[in-house]
Amino acid sequence: MMLARVADSLYWMGRYVERAEHMCRLADVMLNATLDRSDAATQVARIVLAAVGDNDPEKARSPYDAARALALDREDGGSITTSLALARENARQVRDQITTETWERLNLIYLRVTGPAAAKAFNDGSSAFLHDIIADLHMFKGAADATMSHGEGWRFLLLGMYLERAQLNGRLLEVFFGDARKRPITDHFALTSLLRMSCALEPYLRRYTADVRPELILEFLMFDEDFPRSIRFSTARIEEHLSAASRYVDAGHVGPERLAGRLKARLQYADVENMELGGAGALLTTVLDECAAIHTAIYDTFVAYSLEMRLPA
What we know:
Layout: H1 4-33, H2 39-51, H3 57-60, H4 63-72, H5 80-93, H6 100-114, H7 118-124, H8 126-147, H9 152-177, H10 188-197, H11 201-208, H12 214-223, H13 231-245, H14 256-268, H15 280-303
Helix pairs in contact: 1-2, 1-4, 1-5, 1-8, 1-9, 2-9, 2-10, 5-6, 6-8, 7-8, 9-13, 9-15, 13-14, 14-15
Protein backbone atom coordinates (compact mmCIF):
# COMPACT_ATOMS: atom_id res chain seq x y z
CA MET A 1 0.00 0.00 0.00
CA MET A 2 1.56 3.32 -1.03
CA LEU A 3 1.66 6.47 1.05
CA ALA A 4 -1.54 8.54 1.06
CA ARG A 5 0.27 11.67 -0.12
CA VAL A 6 1.73 9.76 -3.08
CA ALA A 7 -1.68 8.41 -4.12
CA ASP A 8 -3.13 11.90 -3.74
CA SER A 9 -0.47 13.54 -5.94
CA LEU A 10 -0.74 10.91 -8.69
CA TYR A 11 -4.53 11.12 -8.63
CA TRP A 12 -4.51 14.91 -8.97
CA MET A 13 -1.79 14.85 -11.59
CA GLY A 14 -4.09 12.69 -13.71
CA ARG A 15 -7.04 15.00 -13.10
CA TYR A 16 -5.16 18.18 -13.99
CA VAL A 17 -3.65 16.69 -17.15
CA GLU A 18 -7.08 15.58 -18.36
CA ARG A 19 -8.54 18.99 -17.47
CA ALA A 20 -5.86 20.79 -19.48
CA GLU A 21 -6.54 18.67 -22.56
CA HIS A 22 -10.29 19.19 -22.27
CA MET A 23 -9.85 22.96 -21.96
CA CYS A 24 -7.61 22.97 -25.03
CA ARG A 25 -10.43 21.44 -27.06
CA LEU A 26 -13.00 23.87 -25.71
CA ALA A 27 -10.74 26.84 -26.46
CA ASP A 28 -10.07 25.54 -29.97
CA VAL A 29 -13.80 25.22 -30.67
CA MET A 30 -14.31 28.81 -29.50
CA LEU A 31 -11.56 29.94 -31.87
CA ASN A 32 -13.37 28.21 -34.72
CA ALA A 33 -16.46 30.16 -33.70
CA THR A 34 -14.59 33.41 -34.40
CA LEU A 35 -14.53 32.46 -38.09
CA ASP A 36 -18.32 32.36 -38.25
CA ARG A 37 -20.41 35.39 -37.29
CA SER A 38 -23.67 33.43 -37.22
CA ASP A 39 -25.96 32.97 -34.24
CA ALA A 40 -24.87 29.34 -34.08
CA ALA A 41 -21.25 30.39 -33.51
CA THR A 42 -22.30 32.65 -30.64
CA GLN A 43 -24.38 29.81 -29.24
CA VAL A 44 -21.33 27.51 -29.30
CA ALA A 45 -19.29 30.10 -27.41
CA ARG A 46 -22.06 30.35 -24.78
CA ILE A 47 -22.14 26.57 -24.46
CA VAL A 48 -18.37 26.36 -23.96
CA LEU A 49 -18.43 29.05 -21.29
CA ALA A 50 -21.41 27.45 -19.55
CA ALA A 51 -19.57 24.11 -19.51
CA VAL A 52 -16.73 25.73 -17.55
CA GLY A 53 -19.11 27.50 -15.19
CA ASP A 54 -18.99 30.97 -16.76
CA ASN A 55 -22.42 32.27 -17.79
CA ASP A 56 -21.39 35.83 -18.62
CA PRO A 57 -23.18 36.57 -21.96
CA GLU A 58 -20.72 39.36 -22.81
CA LYS A 59 -17.80 36.94 -23.04
CA ALA A 60 -19.63 34.88 -25.66
CA ARG A 61 -19.54 37.90 -27.96
CA SER A 62 -15.71 37.87 -27.88
CA PRO A 63 -14.82 34.19 -28.28
CA TYR A 64 -11.16 34.92 -29.12
CA ASP A 65 -10.61 36.78 -25.85
CA ALA A 66 -12.48 34.05 -23.94
CA ALA A 67 -10.33 31.35 -25.56
CA ARG A 68 -7.15 33.27 -24.77
CA ALA A 69 -8.17 33.62 -21.13
CA LEU A 70 -9.05 29.94 -20.96
CA ALA A 71 -5.57 29.13 -22.22
CA LEU A 72 -3.28 31.64 -20.50
CA ASP A 73 -5.07 33.24 -17.53
CA ARG A 74 -2.99 32.30 -14.47
CA GLU A 75 -5.66 33.71 -12.15
CA ASP A 76 -8.26 31.26 -13.45
CA GLY A 77 -8.12 28.04 -11.46
CA GLY A 78 -9.42 26.03 -14.43
CA SER A 79 -7.30 27.48 -17.24
CA ILE A 80 -4.88 25.38 -19.26
CA THR A 81 -1.85 27.14 -17.78
CA THR A 82 -3.04 26.71 -14.21
CA SER A 83 -4.00 23.07 -14.74
CA LEU A 84 -0.60 22.22 -16.19
CA ALA A 85 1.21 24.10 -13.42
CA LEU A 86 -0.72 22.12 -10.81
CA ALA A 87 -0.12 18.84 -12.66
CA ARG A 88 3.62 19.54 -12.72
CA GLU A 89 3.68 20.47 -9.04
CA ASN A 90 1.99 17.19 -8.13
CA ALA A 91 4.44 15.34 -10.37
CA ARG A 92 7.36 17.09 -8.67
CA GLN A 93 6.16 15.90 -5.29
CA VAL A 94 6.25 12.27 -6.45
CA ARG A 95 9.22 12.53 -8.80
CA ASP A 96 10.59 9.24 -7.49
CA GLN A 97 7.33 7.45 -8.33
CA ILE A 98 7.19 8.35 -12.02
CA THR A 99 9.65 7.69 -14.83
CA THR A 100 12.07 10.19 -16.30
CA GLU A 101 10.23 10.08 -19.63
CA THR A 102 6.93 10.92 -17.96
CA TRP A 103 8.40 13.76 -15.93
CA GLU A 104 10.32 15.28 -18.86
CA ARG A 105 7.28 15.29 -21.13
CA LEU A 106 5.10 17.03 -18.53
CA ASN A 107 7.87 19.49 -17.68
CA LEU A 108 8.28 20.43 -21.36
CA ILE A 109 4.55 21.12 -21.69
CA TYR A 110 4.66 23.26 -18.55
CA LEU A 111 7.58 25.29 -19.87
CA ARG A 112 5.78 25.79 -23.19
CA VAL A 113 2.68 27.35 -21.62
CA THR A 114 4.38 29.34 -18.84
CA GLY A 115 7.43 30.62 -20.72
CA PRO A 116 7.83 34.25 -21.83
CA ALA A 117 7.04 33.30 -25.44
CA ALA A 118 3.69 31.65 -24.66
CA ALA A 119 1.52 34.75 -25.18
CA LYS A 120 3.23 35.58 -28.47
CA ALA A 121 2.92 31.97 -29.66
CA PHE A 122 -0.81 32.05 -28.92
CA ASN A 123 -1.28 35.39 -30.70
CA ASP A 124 0.70 34.25 -33.76
CA GLY A 125 -1.10 30.93 -34.15
CA SER A 126 -3.65 30.21 -31.46
CA SER A 127 -5.06 27.03 -32.97
CA ALA A 128 -1.61 25.57 -33.63
CA PHE A 129 -0.58 26.49 -30.06
CA LEU A 130 -3.51 24.52 -28.64
CA HIS A 131 -3.03 21.56 -30.99
CA ASP A 132 0.63 21.32 -29.97
CA ILE A 133 -0.36 21.17 -26.30
CA ILE A 134 -2.89 18.42 -27.02
CA ALA A 135 -0.26 16.46 -28.95
CA ASP A 136 2.22 16.87 -26.09
CA LEU A 137 -0.38 15.69 -23.57
CA HIS A 138 -1.00 12.61 -25.69
CA MET A 139 2.73 11.93 -25.61
CA PHE A 140 2.72 12.36 -21.84
CA LYS A 141 -0.04 9.78 -21.50
CA GLY A 142 1.78 7.47 -23.88
CA ALA A 143 5.01 7.83 -21.92
CA ALA A 144 3.22 7.08 -18.66
CA ASP A 145 1.56 3.99 -20.13
CA ALA A 146 4.72 2.71 -21.82
CA THR A 147 7.30 3.37 -19.10
CA MET A 148 5.56 3.32 -15.70
CA SER A 149 5.00 0.07 -13.87
CA HIS A 150 1.30 -0.76 -14.07
CA GLY A 151 0.92 -0.95 -10.32
CA GLU A 152 -0.84 1.18 -7.74
CA GLY A 153 0.74 4.49 -8.78
CA TRP A 154 -0.22 4.06 -12.43
CA ARG A 155 -3.75 3.13 -11.39
CA PHE A 156 -4.18 6.27 -9.29
CA LEU A 157 -2.91 8.37 -12.19
CA LEU A 158 -5.45 6.81 -14.56
CA LEU A 159 -8.18 6.91 -11.94
CA GLY A 160 -7.80 10.68 -11.75
CA MET A 161 -7.80 11.00 -15.54
CA TYR A 162 -10.94 8.95 -16.09
CA LEU A 163 -12.90 10.48 -13.22
CA GLU A 164 -12.06 13.97 -14.48
CA ARG A 165 -13.03 12.95 -18.02
CA ALA A 166 -16.38 11.55 -16.92
CA GLN A 167 -17.21 14.72 -14.99
CA LEU A 168 -16.07 17.17 -17.67
CA ASN A 169 -17.91 15.39 -20.47
CA GLY A 170 -20.94 14.96 -18.23
CA ARG A 171 -21.08 18.71 -17.60
CA LEU A 172 -20.72 19.37 -21.32
CA LEU A 173 -23.59 17.04 -22.17
CA GLU A 174 -25.65 18.55 -19.36
CA VAL A 175 -25.34 21.97 -20.99
CA PHE A 176 -26.54 20.53 -24.30
CA PHE A 177 -29.22 18.11 -23.14
CA GLY A 178 -29.83 18.71 -19.44
CA ASP A 179 -32.75 21.14 -19.53
CA ALA A 180 -35.94 19.47 -20.74
CA ARG A 181 -37.74 22.84 -20.76
CA LYS A 182 -35.55 24.15 -23.60
CA ARG A 183 -35.75 23.15 -27.22
CA PRO A 184 -33.11 20.56 -28.12
CA ILE A 185 -30.09 21.97 -29.95
CA THR A 186 -30.35 20.77 -33.53
CA ASP A 187 -28.06 23.20 -35.37
CA HIS A 188 -25.48 21.25 -37.37
CA PHE A 189 -22.61 23.60 -36.48
CA ALA A 190 -23.35 23.34 -32.77
CA LEU A 191 -23.67 19.54 -32.88
CA THR A 192 -20.40 19.04 -34.77
CA SER A 193 -18.76 21.46 -32.34
CA LEU A 194 -19.92 19.25 -29.45
CA LEU A 195 -18.33 16.25 -31.16
CA ARG A 196 -15.09 18.20 -31.62
CA MET A 197 -15.08 19.24 -27.95
CA SER A 198 -15.31 15.55 -27.05
CA CYS A 199 -12.68 14.46 -29.60
CA ALA A 200 -15.46 12.36 -31.10
CA LEU A 201 -16.14 13.71 -34.59
CA GLU A 202 -14.28 11.07 -36.59
CA PRO A 203 -15.27 8.08 -34.39
CA TYR A 204 -18.90 9.25 -34.53
CA LEU A 205 -18.86 9.62 -38.32
CA ARG A 206 -17.37 6.14 -38.69
CA ARG A 207 -20.28 4.78 -36.69
CA TYR A 208 -23.16 6.86 -38.08
CA THR A 209 -21.67 8.32 -41.31
CA ALA A 210 -23.06 11.83 -41.90
CA ASP A 211 -26.22 11.35 -39.83
CA VAL A 212 -25.51 14.07 -37.23
CA ARG A 213 -28.50 13.99 -34.88
CA PRO A 214 -28.66 15.02 -31.22
CA GLU A 215 -30.12 11.72 -30.00
CA LEU A 216 -27.37 9.74 -31.72
CA ILE A 217 -24.68 12.04 -30.34
CA LEU A 218 -26.08 11.68 -26.83
CA GLU A 219 -26.16 7.90 -27.17
CA PHE A 220 -22.59 7.78 -28.53
CA LEU A 221 -21.02 10.09 -25.95
CA MET A 222 -22.84 8.52 -23.00
CA PHE A 223 -23.21 4.83 -23.76
CA ASP A 224 -20.71 3.68 -26.35
CA GLU A 225 -18.63 0.96 -24.69
CA ASP A 226 -15.68 1.21 -27.08
CA PHE A 227 -15.15 4.95 -27.47
CA PRO A 228 -12.53 5.97 -24.83
CA ARG A 229 -14.15 9.34 -24.13
CA SER A 230 -17.69 8.16 -23.60
CA ILE A 231 -19.01 8.32 -20.05
CA ARG A 232 -19.72 4.58 -20.03
CA PHE A 233 -16.14 3.75 -21.06
CA SER A 234 -14.71 6.13 -18.44
CA THR A 235 -16.84 4.77 -15.61
CA ALA A 236 -15.88 1.19 -16.54
CA ARG A 237 -12.19 2.13 -16.23
CA ILE A 238 -12.86 3.92 -12.92
CA GLU A 239 -14.43 0.75 -11.53
CA GLU A 240 -11.59 -1.38 -12.90
CA HIS A 241 -8.82 0.69 -11.30
CA LEU A 242 -10.66 1.15 -8.01
CA SER A 243 -11.34 -2.58 -7.72
CA ALA A 244 -7.64 -3.27 -8.16
CA ALA A 245 -6.56 -0.55 -5.70
CA SER A 246 -9.15 -1.51 -3.09
CA ARG A 247 -7.69 -4.98 -2.66
CA TYR A 248 -5.12 -3.45 -0.33
CA VAL A 249 -7.56 -1.78 2.08
CA ASP A 250 -10.64 -2.66 4.10
CA ALA A 251 -12.98 0.02 2.77
CA GLY A 252 -16.18 -1.28 4.35
CA HIS A 253 -19.64 -1.06 2.81
CA VAL A 254 -19.13 2.45 1.40
CA GLY A 255 -15.91 1.68 -0.46
CA PRO A 256 -15.40 3.71 -3.67
CA GLU A 257 -15.23 0.56 -5.79
CA ARG A 258 -18.82 -0.23 -4.82
CA LEU A 259 -20.00 3.22 -5.83
CA ALA A 260 -18.08 2.91 -9.10
CA GLY A 261 -19.58 -0.53 -9.75
CA ARG A 262 -23.08 0.86 -9.23
CA LEU A 263 -22.42 3.73 -11.67
CA LYS A 264 -20.92 1.35 -14.20
CA ALA A 265 -24.00 -0.88 -14.01
CA ARG A 266 -26.34 2.11 -14.27
CA LEU A 267 -24.84 3.06 -17.63
CA GLN A 268 -24.33 -0.49 -18.82
CA TYR A 269 -27.98 -1.42 -18.35
CA ALA A 270 -29.63 1.90 -19.13
CA ASP A 271 -32.61 1.75 -21.47
CA VAL A 272 -30.92 3.63 -24.28
CA GLU A 273 -33.51 3.01 -26.96
CA ASN A 274 -36.37 4.48 -24.95
CA MET A 275 -34.49 7.40 -23.44
CA GLU A 276 -35.55 10.70 -24.96
CA LEU A 277 -33.43 13.85 -25.07
CA GLY A 278 -35.69 15.49 -22.54
CA GLY A 279 -35.04 12.69 -20.06
CA ALA A 280 -31.28 12.81 -20.31
CA GLY A 281 -30.94 15.59 -17.75
CA ALA A 282 -31.93 13.43 -14.78
CA LEU A 283 -29.47 10.70 -15.75
CA LEU A 284 -26.65 13.18 -16.33
CA THR A 285 -27.31 14.77 -12.94
CA THR A 286 -27.18 11.33 -11.33
CA VAL A 287 -23.91 10.51 -13.10
CA LEU A 288 -22.29 13.76 -11.96
CA ASP A 289 -23.55 13.30 -8.39
CA GLU A 290 -22.22 9.76 -8.25
CA CYS A 291 -18.85 10.84 -9.69
CA ALA A 292 -18.64 13.42 -6.89
CA ALA A 293 -19.51 10.71 -4.36
CA ILE A 294 -16.77 8.47 -5.78
CA HIS A 295 -14.25 11.30 -5.40
CA THR A 296 -15.25 11.78 -1.77
CA ALA A 297 -15.03 8.03 -1.12
CA ILE A 298 -11.57 7.90 -2.72
CA TYR A 299 -10.37 10.55 -0.30
CA ASP A 300 -12.01 8.86 2.69
CA THR A 301 -10.49 5.51 1.75
CA PHE A 302 -7.04 6.28 0.39
CA VAL A 303 -6.05 9.81 1.46
CA ALA A 304 -7.84 11.27 4.49
CA TYR A 305 -8.63 8.06 6.34
CA SER A 306 -8.32 7.86 10.12
CA LEU A 307 -5.46 5.91 11.70
CA GLU A 308 -7.97 3.55 13.32
CA MET A 309 -8.87 2.27 9.84
CA ARG A 310 -5.31 1.12 9.19
CA LEU A 311 -4.03 0.05 12.60
CA PRO A 312 -4.66 -3.57 13.62
CA ALA A 313 -7.19 -4.12 16.39
